[in-house]
Amino acid sequence: MHCLWRYLSSIFILLYLFIVPHVWADFEQAKAQLPTGTRSGLVSQLLNEQQTVNQYTDGYFPPASTLKIITALASQLELGEQFRFTTELRADNHQLALIFSGDPTLTTANLRQLFSQYRSKHGRKISGDIWLDISQFSGYQRAVGWPWDSLGVCYSAPVSAVNLDGNCIQASIYTQDNGSTRVYVPPHYPVHVSSEAKTVSQALQQSLHCDLELIATPNNHYQLSGCLAEREQPLPLRFAVQNPELYAQRVIHQLLRQLGIHLEGDIKIGQPPEIQTMASIAIHRSAALPELLKIMLQDSDNLIADSLTKTLGQHFFLQPGSFANGTEAMKQIIFANTGIDLQDAQLVDGSGLSRNNRLRLESMRQILAYLAAHDQQLSLLNLLPTAGESGTLLYRRSMRHSSVRGQLIAKSGSLYGTHNMVGFVVNEQGKPLSLFIQYVTDYFPSTANAHLPIEPPITQFELRFYQDVINMAHGQ
């Protein structure tokens, strides 16, 4: 037996000595596709052995949305599979209180159902006030380092204890023959949108360097300006709600009118003194945590990620949740349960949207290795998108190639100049064979040939890199 073990060990060593230099050379060829000045960190590690190929893994990189994997792990460890966000309607003889918990999936229809239950039990009159209790969260509704120029769009929606309809407003803008534009907003959205944007030809837009611009104000007013090239179909727009509390107040006024409920008081923000003695009228519960994590990872949902981050802070420290205590809770939860030390990571949110986030590849490697080793207990790997088949990876050009499609499960991450991917090579049964990390930042390709039908350098790099990690996982 001892001789057999020595023989097998020598075989593994020979394979290692052969494969690693080969894969290293392949990585170098893949990196050659990237523009000069691009910074990258690459890792590939077989899970059944300690064979690892690394390139420039000592530095810090912006994780972008790959951070959601860490948020998912911390949430699963701390909150558990049975966790659900709750929204509760309470009442006493004259007033109501809506207790919000930061549910990122709460809809206007859910609120309507709560008030419908009130009407069926207590009639069509509220003699006092309606209180909106948002005390579960505190602090900023946007994390430090969120780009200012994206705050008006839905992927940067504020994170409040009261989130309605994803804090997102659907609209559209039309070009006009007289050179103006007009905006359509469905009437059920209690916001105001105006447009001073001009309709111009494609050539004039390019020569003027004039794009569509948005100014959003704290009272949920939106003004469009700049230029829009002539088009036959309307351009869809998605605005982030700027003031979730004001938006909720206006939505509730609409619902009360629709339900025929007369409110004699006001809709106020805060907690009534009698909150603890008020009777529970109705409760809405979100989907359970695994379903929320699936949406978060498949669709890269920032609102779910950051609502969970604040909830972790509230749950772990027993105080109103914030970005500050939420990210610290993530670090402490993961260290206490896994032994992985993230104290040197610079984390300011749980979505990865902030430009201030920084993470070492070794930290992400340890997280991925833990997920693979404990997948039976965590069940997180099956929530990740599959290359070329689902979620945010469905249409990724580098993953639609037959040599890559279906062979990776991973989480992408993108910011300005950043293109990341972390995940696993899987076999035909979907079981992980190896982990990999691709962190690429300071990526600024030449725009000289942007009009030509040429694959972008990042796509060429990714295809080559993914083929390399797949070949390594299969011992090729």
UniProtKB/TrEMBL annotation:
Pfam families: Peptidase_S13. One of its GO terms (biological process) is peptidoglycan metabolic process. Keywords: Carboxypeptidase, Hydrolase, Protease. It comes from the Bacteria. Its EC number is 3.4.16.4, 3.4.21.-. Belongs to the peptidase S13 family. This is Serine-type D-Ala-D-Ala carboxypeptidase. It comes from bacterium 19MO03SA05. The gene is dacB.
